[in-house]
Predict the 3D structure of the following.
Amino acid sequence: MPKLVYVDNAATTNLSKSVINAMIPYYTENYGNPSSLYSIGRDAKKAIEFAREEIANCFNADVNEIFFTSGGSESDNWAIKGIAYEQAKKGKKHIITSKIEHHAVLHTTEFLENEGFEVTYLNVNEDGIINTDELENAIKPDTALVTIMYANNEIGTIQPIDEIGTICRKYNVIFHTDAVQAVGNIEIDVKKQNIDLLSVSAHKVHGPKGVGVLYVRRGIKILNLIHGGAQERGRRASTENVAGIVGASVAIKEACHNINEKVSKISRLRDYLIDEVLKIEKSRLNGSRTHRLPGNANFCFEGIEGESLLLLLDMQGVCASSGSACTSGSLDPSHVLLSIGLPHEIAHGSLRISLSDYNTKEEIDYILEILPGIINKLREMSPLWEKIVCENTK
Amino acid sequence: MIYSDKVMDHFANPRNVGELRNANGIGEVGNPKCGDIMKMYLRIEDGIIADIKFKTFGCGAAVATSSMATELVKGKTINEALSLTNKAVVEALDGLPPVKIHCSVLAEQAIKSAISDYYKRQGIDPIPLVGEIKED
């Protein structure tokens, strides 16, 4: 039995060895403040600018379009608030997003609603994909921003980003996408895809926590979120997280290298997992089977509750995740699962397994070995399962 | 969110889990929409909880509070079982995270609901004795 099977890579990932090695010198020797004049300060500054260039190359962006932040959530907050307040000066106070965004986006748009902005939340179909006609119809003369995630963190659904970009360009509306889950899984070209702002996080791709990137297309005006210094060309104050930025650039570069090879390896594992898990009675796969992140598998098992399932998996060394209400501390299950039309009682019993290229077939086999027993144990003590079985035999 | 060792023990090895074939009082509270249902089976003999079993759909805390509640009332008189509070269940489990306190309330209500059912089967109006049951 493996000691620890880590299959929660959509939550965070292990640091890759090359990332750690690249970071260490900026903690030990080149610890200077990049704003300082002396050599170890200048070296740190050079490292940041080299990292910026490397990251720009990954997304076909220009080096001056890349800004470092404290993570994906800050990038989302900055993009949305920064554009909203800038556009509001021209009287544009309407934002379009989707119902299945990450809370870093949804809670930001809710905040803006309280500030007097109008927000349209696009529906998604049963696979979790938005309707581009609905998007086009929602655009108004005062639409300031469209913000739609590249790929969903819970169910792995990939949105038609090319089409969304084309529509936004046609109406001259600014387009932001939260690409935190997409980086390293899909090739991203901000120019070709008409993406105006792009949020990226390092720790989802074997980089350090606490480092993010916001790409802002040249010529797009955005208000600052963090005030207080001249860093990031005056756009984002705070002494730079030099080691983190260096680590982020190595991680993102590695993630964007050989994408096709990685994707085919990981999706083979994922498809094997999905096919085998769906043999369990009263189970279902959430999200699209085809427009799906290579590492994402999200299931519902009727008659059981997600947190109990996670606790039992954890006792046998498996780290996974759930859209269960009980893990988030609210009474409602995942907004994503409800938006794709699942009833509450089924949405409570979800399990997300997210793979990276560090996972092996042996690990999947181990999960497949223990999962049916865990589900049986929980169903045997579930009065809800009793009812489901009863209704089925009627 | 961190559970105490006692919660984890009662979750992983729940006491009195299952059904009671000769139950003479059965209560169910909670609803699937909220993500937890507790069902209690009682065998009451000479005013004593002679046997008790439960089935629960819900999170770790829901299972653990059900298990602990059955332990706390087993072998007790009906009146003693009725005086079981959710606070006593929480204390016996060495505490619960704040968002999980409602699970202990559900466990208390599940016991009361099963005793109500017992009284009804005896032709006794349970309301003056047990009070109103909060069903979820």
Summary: Chain A touches chain B through 25 residues (CB under 8 Å). The CA atoms of residues 106 and 312 of chain A lie 31 Å apart.
